[in-house]
Amino acid sequence: MKKELFYDVVVIGGGHAGCEAAAASSRLGINTALVTNDFNSIGEMSCNPAIGGLGKGHLVREIDALDGLMGVVADKSGIQFRLLNSSRGPAVRGPRTQSDRYLYKKNMQEILANYCNLKIFSDPVNEFIFTKNSISGIITKSGLIIKSSKTILTTGTFLNGLIHIGDKKIPAGRFNEKPTTGLSEQLKNYEFKLGRLKTGTPPRLDSRTINYKNLEEQFADKDPYFFSFLTKKNLNKQVSCRMTYTNEIVHKIIKQNLKKSAMYSGSIQGVGPRYCPSVEDKIVKFEDKTRHQIYLEPEGLNDYTIYPNGISTSLPENVQQEICNNIIGLENVKIIRPGYAIEYDYVDPRELLLTLETKKIKNLYLAGQINGTTGYEEAAGQGLIAGINAALSVKKEEPFVLDRSEAYIGVMIDDLVTKGVSEPYRMFTSRAEYRLTLRADNADIRLTRKGTAIGLISLNRKNIFEDKLFKINDTKVSMKNFKISPSKAEKFGVKIAKDGVLRTAEEVLSRNSIKMSKIREIWPKIPFFSKEVDEQIEINCHYKGYLKKQDSDILAFKRDENLIIPESLNYEKLSGLSNEIRSKFKKIKPKTLGQALRIDGVTPAAAYILLSHVKRKSIKRIA
Ligand code: FAD
Questions:
Q1: Which among 28, 102, 211, 276 has the fewest CB atoms less than 10 Å away?
Q2: SS3 sequence, 109-141?
């Protein structure tokens, strides 16, 4: 007889989405199983060993604010911390780190292996167990049956994964890892809309064969900006990346071999990410550019592998070698592993509710690359939300949904389930309407209390956060009591109209050019707690006017967001809608008027019809 087990929540896949999903569900006190192909590949970075960046860094800070794992693990494994856009406004600054690939996995595996309420199985999932329109468990390769109340599928690029290197085709979920077959087919039987997407990776190089002599160096920041609100110090040696460039000879080689590239030979059907083009794409699409930058990024402190960021390719191995040997610094380079493109199945994310539960199969949640996204951070953000909602549903509690004014995670999920994807979806700061509010620096202030309210946040984090709030407040109160006259201020180099009126420290700081360091020079007695506390005070003071305006925009947004559209609404009965818009409403089933308005192609007239109907039926408002 086959062995049968039961867990309240089963997470399939130990990638970035699966790790966060399993941890979130366990943190909420739910008996959780993480079933993955191989324990040793938990936390694997399929492509470049780096976390964060513009938009992506915001996601990691939000995951951390909700007590997720990615920020802590990235800090423990970081070998080149950099704050991108540091010279620009705080809203668009993006923390990033080059990670030690080995350390990232090790740290993630250690945390999960010791996580409360979590059991990990190293056993590929072969089959879902469906009962009518609901999922009740899974069957693994070893024959284990694991029954569950909720299942979260996070299989990334593995569903019918196919690697392309020139004309070579290798069924794989990642290099040297078997693909998953059978699960997509079961989903198709339930009429899920699936598609094919593709992504790619560059060859890996042996650093001992690179000539670094004439290459520009990119240093780590002296004062690292961490991902986690809990991290206080850097643990690892910081390393530099080097820069080199493609050139006209390289472009010529690529053009001559274009037909041999899997991308251009017609053998790849999937659409790739426009913002992460292969080197072939760069040469074809930006024909007038004479060179493209390549960052030579170390994969670890005790690792000779170099990730040449910028030359992702699916050309044959011998052409990859020829390209490299014509790049300055790489003349004698040894390729450790060729670059490749990979195609895989994804599920149209419009099949999902905002909780990431599927509309067609109850109790099944999807998170990560399977939903048409690309990137570790995007996957982790979705995993967190799916894990939270699966667990809350087991507890019969209200769903946890973040809206577009609360978090980048909310922007991403709303985009996915409302608009779907036509190419792999990646986060950018430009996707958020309320950027001044959704900053990386204030993710804890936006989210930690929300997490605490549902029991997601550890006591340690809660205490650290509340202490920070207290200190911010204390400093602000104190700043109201310290005053200065215009003439005295001038002695400190601060120019104020000479009207004889005393200004508080807060008023002086509200001038954009004045930093907290100047305030401390004038008033050394204002209590100093930490640079994070000062950062919050300074940013909020400088942006007070803009934030006030944004708050009123958010209020208007919330008005539409709080207009709930009943799930039972019969769109057939709404007269005046075009067939196209009616079918979009039926498919997406918007939860709020705001979401309905964001569906592609929904006209103000259609929204008006919906609004009047919903109002007539006495709409319910969320408090
Ligand atoms: P993954 O990280 O793929 O994890 C999937 C997990 O599911 C794995 O642990 C796997 O073992 C497990 N699994 C699969 N099938 C089963 C099964 N049947 N049973 C149990 N476990 C299973 N992102 C970028 O942002 N930029 C890039 O340039 C980029 N390039 C990439 C290049 C390549 C070649 C690949 C493969 C990915 C690339 N990515 C890139 C994407 C990035 O790796 C993913 O977005 C991210 O890893 C997705 O996380 P995930 O958790 O959804 O899935």
A1: 211
A2: HHHHHCCCCEEEEECCEEEEEEECCEEEEEEEC
